Each structure stands twice: as C-alpha cells, then as structure tokens.
Amino acid sequence: MLLDFFSSGHMGLKYTYTSRHSYIAYSHRERLADLLERSHIWSQKMKREDTVKLISADGFEFVIDKKAAMVSQTIRNMLTSPGSFAETQHGEVTFPEISTTILEKICQYFYWSLQYASGKETEFHIEPELTLELMMAANYLHT
User: Does the pTM exceed 0.70?
Assistant: First the structure.
C-alpha cells in the first residue's frame, strides 16, 4: 500500500507541499525527512498507472494508490471505462462539488476500507459537523 495512514491508530493527516496546490498525505508519526526519502523511493518504484490524483473543488490534489481509489464504484467506473475519457487517460478525477476537507476524509476512508477488508478492524471516526456533506459525497461515490 502506498500510504499507511492507520498503522498507529491515528486518523488525522498532514500534507507536504509538492507542487502548485498538490499535496501528498502522510501520517502524524512520520517525520518530514522520512517523507522526503519515501517520496523519492516512491517516485522510483511506483508507476503513474499505480496512482490516482483526486482533485477537490478547491483545487487541492490528493495522490493516492489506485487500489484505494477503486473502493469507490464511481471512481472505478471513471478510470476503467472503455473509450477516451480524460479520467481514464490521465488518471485524474476532479470533483467540483466536493470540498478539500470532505475529499480528505474520503481518502482516509478508502485506506480504512482496504484495511478493514483485510481483517484489521479499527474504528473510523467521523466528526459530526462533516456528517451531512460526507453522506452526500459517499452517495455520489457509491462507497
């Protein structure tokens, strides 16, 4: 798995600036030096086809493992549909109606879902103020 968000039980994410409005998520326990080393190794080992860029309404980009993104049936359909759709060709999906905060939580859920499916049962905390927006986004994404 590209990013290990939940191995220490923390649900919060931090971001490191990589380019114009582009962020790579990492867990609280990682130091910046570790992240930079990992991102260098990641760029050498991971192919572009193995990742997906999700872009929020605010223009923030979340680069995540394609396997995690495929938790969403909507994203899966966008990325695997036959034809020459931009999402399929570029591996990028823009969500003009989903805020950065909600898309961050969705990315957390994707990784949590993969871990849950592999037998690691942990709690997925949702802040009450995010509930309505998150439910609408989850309904759209079929997650």
Answer: no
